[in-house]
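Case 321 in the screening queue. Each case pairs one protein sequence with one candidate compound; here the compound is NAP. For every case the pipeline is the same: read the inputs, emit a complex structure as tokens, and attach any notable structural observations.

Predict complex for case 321.
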Amino acid sequence: MQFIRLGRTGLKVSRLCLGTMTFGWSADETESFAIMNRAFEAGINFFDTADIYSRWIAGNQGGESETIIGKWLKDKPRHELIIATKVRGRMWNGANGEGLHRQHILKAVEDSLRRLQTDYIDLYQTHFPDDTTPLEETLSTLDSLVQSGKVRYIGCSNYPAWLLMKNLWVSDVQRWARFDCLQPHYSLFHRSEFERELAAACLDQGVGVIPYSPLAAGFATGKYTRDNRQPETTRESSGLIQRLINNMQAYDALDLVREIAQTHAVPMAQIALAWQLSKPAVTAPIIGARTISQLEEVLGAVDVKLSAEQLQQLDAATAMF
Ligand SMILES: NC(=O)c1ccc[n+]([C@@H]2O[C@H](COP(=O)([O-])OP(=O)(O)OC[C@H]3O[C@@H](n4cnc5c(N)ncnc54)[C@H](OP(=O)(O)O)[C@@H]3O)[C@@H](O)[C@H]2O)c1
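Case 321 output:
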């Protein structure tokens, strides 16, 4: 495994981050433990979760993913792992059951710590913006968590560039802890949202970048084809999959990914990840695995070196996304 600094911090994270949204949902506890064991054995020290995973499933309350990670962590060297989680989504009933205000964050962080069975969170991220709460209220609360030691670094997810910059400015002016990491949606099949302005802003500001859905929710693995648009999956209702499965330009791009994968003799998923790892702003893609074999298929991505011509071909074939 290779390691890299998280943005301008001195923290070293593995170049692949393990996403755990599937835990307690499409991966049961046994499979989740196997996935974490294999990831850790392969050198991945960076795990991403969220308090709401996986609340959208009927019967789930949220917190299932954090609970599974907490059980797994009990006999692991806690100090060797970088655990990232998120706050913002609805976790309990009532007017304050969601949001980025002080009342919600201070209860949510205690709940996450209890489920994770740890006394600190390495990276605490705002999951998506909350336009009903002043930035100063959110950032001062996060700063107090950093000062108390409950949280070590803070980050944000799903922020547009102007809002990221405004948050950094407020933190700097107030001398509060600032966001050291952004978690954007980014892949070969979803580019412009990140590349238009966020990539340059993160490079300029020394903000680490951990893109989510780097395999376009499974589309980039090649299991979706023109002739089979309903492969075995749990992600059929994803908005991205729905946009891609009838898009012929997406299949043309997949043809190129397949061709390049054949020349390197690696699975297509590794080409999608190697392309992303070549982008200077990217710290570590967050890979999602539902099974241990899916994880096995992507682990080698950090060792794939694409030529300048292959990178240029992939950029050109996916420019419309
Ligand atoms: N901040 C946010 O708003 C946000 C949003 C989404 C995700 N995330 C984070 O990012 C992580 C990754 O997101 P993601 O799951 O969308 O990432 P992804 O890597 O683009 O997609 C992962 C999905 O693709 C399929 N897949 C993966 N490897 C495969 C393989 N080798 N062969 C065939 N299918 C394969 C699996 O779904 P199927 O087998 O069911 O098709 C798997 O669940 C999450 O776990 C979470 O930590 C954050």
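Case 321 observations:
- The chain has one domain: 3-317.
- Residues 19-22, 26, 48, 127, 157-158, 183, 212-218, 221, 223, 233-235, 269, 286-290, 294, 297-298 surround NAP (CB under 6 Å).
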